[in-house]
Amino acid sequence: MTNTIGDVEDAEVILVTGSNTTENHPVLSSFIKRAVKFKNAKLIVVDPRRIKLTEFAHLWLRPKLGTDVAWLNGLMHVIIAEDLHDKAFIENRTTDFEKLKSMVEKFTPDYVKQITGIPEARIIEAARLYAGARAGAILYCMGITQHTTGTDNVKSLANLAMLCGNLGIAGGGVNPLRGQNNVQGACDMGGLPNVFSGYRPVTDATVRKEMEGAWGVSDLPEKPGLTVTKMVPMAHTGEIKALYIIGENPMVSDADLNHAEKSLSHLDFLVVQDIFMTETGMMADVVLPSACFAEKDGTFSNTERRVQRVRKAVDAPKDAWNDWRITSEIAKRMGYPMNYKSSQEIFEEIARLTPSYAGISYERIERQGLYWPCPTQDHPGTPILHTQEFTRGKGMFHAIDYIPPAEKTDDEYPLYLTTGRVLYHYHTGTMTRRTEGLNERAPESFVEISAEDAKRFGVEDESMITVASRRGEINVRAKVSKMVEEGTVFIPFHYAEAAANKLTHAALDPVSNIPEYKVCAIRLSRAA
Fold this sequence. Notes:
One of its GO terms (biological process) is nitrate assimilation. One of its GO terms (cellular component) is membrane. Keywords: 4Fe-4S, Electron transport, Iron, Iron-sulfur, Metal-binding, Molybdenum, Nitrate assimilation, Oxidoreductase, Periplasm, Signal, Transport. Residues 415-521 form the Molybdopterin dinucleotide-binding domain. By secondary structure, this protein is α/β, with parallel strands linked by helices. It is 30% helix and 17% strand. A hairpin with a 4-residue loop joins strand 18 (464-468) and strand 19 (473-480). Helix 3 (68-81) packs across helix 7 (120-131), helix 3 (68-81) runs parallel beside helix 9 (150-163) and helix 12 crosses helix 14 (257-265). The longest helix has 14 residues, at 26-39. The radius of gyration is 24 Å and the shape is globular. It starts with 12 loop residues before the first strand and ends with a strand.
């Protein structure tokens, strides 16, 4: 997030898109609702489903799946045409405005309506509302990123924020809501194939030399590694013969699960490290039990870049080790002496080698976390990014055209499927589906279907139906609902016994390599 969670309450207008915030981020959603109810903030929700947050919205735009670039360009078309853009911010802090202006010129409200289904008046109203705010915050989640155009979607949100001068100010920003508790921290630490900690590229010879010196090694690879969505297909072809999976359950979470299962079965050796036995662990040659968050000391970096202490509350089972200890012991057996004594010692190394963490220490975050970048011991941390300039200096506008989803409906597969989460379960259910109370509230998978589509396909509420795509099929219970509109169904992905990802396909965003989980074509039939 460029801004903090609490900063949302300083916004005059809040634009939430691709985020079922009340179910996926219930604590954070309370800040949005509080801003609307008690601080007179105006809320714009852009979502194909009638999510709970629409009840608090002043304006709800309901686009067709996979049309985010179109409606965003439509908003920017209106803002520029009506002279509502922040000319001073654009002049002083950005480049390539004319390229953006030229691109969005064709995205008239009428043209956008043809693509997205959003009425022209709604596009105009949303553009005026966002552009007219003293400070406008944008919040988004995986409904924006999990597309073949996910990178384009995020760049378009950044375009909109820069166009209206809503970056580097309180109550503004472009704020991705991370899906799990330390996703931000994992990325910060180099849990991406192309960077070291602090997002310093592996292709930078100076950075590689610094890391080699710190670790006492030579010839660190200059070539970026592979994303997981590249690794799994390479397991299928035999190019990758072993995988080590930590804290992930791809046998529920990967797109096109049938193909993913075949790919993993082709491996010579599979190691899974997790806190519970998972569907992926059942396929492993070796399972390494690890300690959970409550059983260890360390730090988490949350969605707002706040680095916080995590303290051990209970003892782990006797066979479960801290993740860092497991990694260290494997390194020793492979010939590299990784002799850490504690998580604090590791954090001290992180601070020495990561400029954005250099001023953070256990002592400083004993009672309250700090926001990175925090480059020195006397630095207060940085709650709001880009107050003076962007990382590259001036922010660059990107001229982005609309590209439709990778898979379209046809006579054989006439409906679109989108996937997501429910309030009571978390990701692949590794933890929550072992919790009796949560299972009572959300015991099984379901498919949300509109009343119109239920009538069209002869589906009765609460009946079992088969949902099939070009990749697989599952049996789920029908839930006739006003949440979805005609032509689209929704299935949560938590349930291994009716895994939605047996249906989704693995078409990837060419930049981020994220699969298009949010759009695929399906058909319905009565279950046998």
